[in-house]
Amino acid sequence: MAGCEAAYQLSKRKIKVKLYEVKRVKKNPVQKLDSFAELVCSNSLRSNELTNAVGTLKEEMRLLDSFILSLAEKASVPAGGSLAVDRKIFSQLVTKELEKNEFIEIINQEFINIPKDEITIICSGPLTTESLQEELIKLMGSDDFYFYDAVAPIITKKSINMDIAYTKNRYDKGETKDYINCPMNEDEYNLFYKELINGEVAIGHLPGEAELKYFEGCMPVEAIAKRGIQTLVFGPMKPKGLNKPDGTRNHAVVQLRQDDANDELYNIAGFQTNLKWGEQKRIFSLIPGLEKANFIRYGVMHKNNFINTPKLLNNFLQLKSNNKIFFAGQIIGVEGYVESCVTGLIASLHVFKMINNKTLINPQSSSVTGALLNYIHNASQTNFQPMKANWGIVEDVTYSKPINKITKQEIQKTKSLMRSEKAINEIKEFIKEYKI
Ligand SMILES: Cc1cc2nc3c(=O)[nH]c(=O)nc-3n(C[C@H](O)[C@H](O)[C@H](O)COP(=O)(O)OP(=O)(O)OC[C@H]3O[C@@H](n4cnc5c(N)ncnc54)[C@H](O)[C@@H]3O)c2cc1C
């Protein structure tokens, strides 16, 4: 996705591109087609609605003349408010356009050696080949190249029962109270523990990977629990330094960490999990304070190569140690077809500007594109996790509640439309300023 978009955008600006693709000589376990831009799982590019962040992202991409999006629209199939495609037709359209393009030379082979003095965009995706993985590890070290995506569930702040949960940092460190804590007594813990270790686990994301080999740093919470009844109490559910506001000690505590700039979303800290989604809802709702938790993203565990972007890349998708090496797509820690594609588009604009000795700029984070870039560049270096397009990362809008009665949904919709309008205006500004 990202590679096709980037190649096309550069060719449109009359820059010659060598596009390396390995799939025609060696496919990964989920690829079936010989053609490019293969949607390996769902055929949906998700919402088209402007009230939705990914819908707004698509509008931003239309303004930026996205190649992939325009062909996805040509290959679309009816899907209500979403953009879904006939995956074969879509992939064929993309391949045909790239193959007939005189500025693009397609090289059907594995790309392994990363040149130091030629401008390169690496967008080898979540299933980068092993030889390239090794080269990347040589370039950046194994600590900053990840093999598995270990994502903890995210819930809305509004759905947390603050009559039970309380804000506090461990040992009251720091000036602000950043964590929300859900306390457990011994009986509550024992019940939770029993359900957790017996919870039904999802199979791996890749066919045939029922037994995933976990790295210690991203071990699922149920796998830690299976090591013994006390492991969680000494691990992610450690109660030390988290006594209740009245001073009472807890047997265990589940900590919730803010996940978005608008302080609307919280992730369950250290609760990366491979449990089935229904099981996550059932078992994690046993945590006191989370009885009515509204899960906006469930935890997942699957093979996903990505790099520690906040540590390794500068603000323009260039490797800090060599600005001729750009990265784009899922490998930089965005998640999803559309998100991957837009970063390919932005990387190619930066490459074009670099070739022309111009100053590089990004769209502001009031746009969804800018917000995604801002997130991956500024997220935690020690616990970096991939991100999808969502309003939580986009700069907030000022909204004054009308005097007349209005439902929560209406407020939400109005706010989303205001955000969307602001985002689209920001991209128009970016296009003017960057002279695209
Ligand atoms: C099993 C699975 C299911 C997924 N399901 C969904 C989903 O339903 N919806 C969604 O939005 N996202 C899904 N994703 C995420 C999805 O991969 C990305 O959203 C998107 O395809 C990433 O785009 P990309 O351009 O970064 O990588 P890709 O689209 O994967 O493209 C990378 C390309 O690089 C090639 N390549 C790899 N290594 C080399 C090399 N050394 N030399 C030359 N070529 C190489 C690959 O063959 C591939 O064609 C899924 C991912 C996986 C692994």
TrEMBL record:
Compartments, as annotated in UniProt: Cytoplasm
InterPro entries, sorted: FAD/NAD-bd_sf, MnmG-rel, MnmG_N, TrmFO
Summary of the function given for this chain in its UniProt record: Catalyzes the folate-dependent formation of 5-methyl-uridine at position 54 (M-5-U54) in all tRNAs.
Cofactor: FAD
Reaction(s) this enzyme catalyzes, per UniProt: uridine(54) in tRNA + (6R)-5,10-methylene-5,6,7,8-tetrahydrofolate + NADH + H(+) = 5-methyluridine(54) in tRNA + (6S)-5,6,7,8-tetrahydrofolate + NAD(+); uridine(54) in tRNA + (6R)-5,10-methylene-5,6,7,8-tetrahydrofolate + NADPH + H(+) = 5-methyluridine(54) in tRNA + (6S)-5,6,7,8-tetrahydrofolate + NADP(+)
NCBIfam families membership: gid_trmFO, PRK05335.1
Enzyme class: transferase
Protein name (Swiss-Prot/TrEMBL): Methylenetetrahydrofolate--tRNA-(uracil-5-)-methyltransferase TrmFO
GO cellular component annotations of the record: cytosol
Any one Gene Ontology BP term: tRNA methylation
Family label: Belongs to the MnmG family. TrmFO subfamily.
Domain of life: Bacteria
Molecular function, one GO term: tRNA (uracil(54)-C5)-methyltransferase activity, 5,10-methylenetetrahydrofolate-dependent
A Pfam family of this chain: GIDA
UniProt-listed SUPFAM superfamilies: FAD/NAD(P)-binding domain
Major localization listed first in the record, in broad terms: cytoplasm
EC number(s) from the headed UniProt entry: 2.1.1.74
Keywords in alphabetical order: Cytoplasm, FAD, Flavoprotein, Methyltransferase, NAD, NADP, Transferase, tRNA processing
Organism (species): Mesoplasma corruscae
Residue ranges of domain MnmG N-terminal in the record: 2-358
Recorded name of the encoding gene: gid
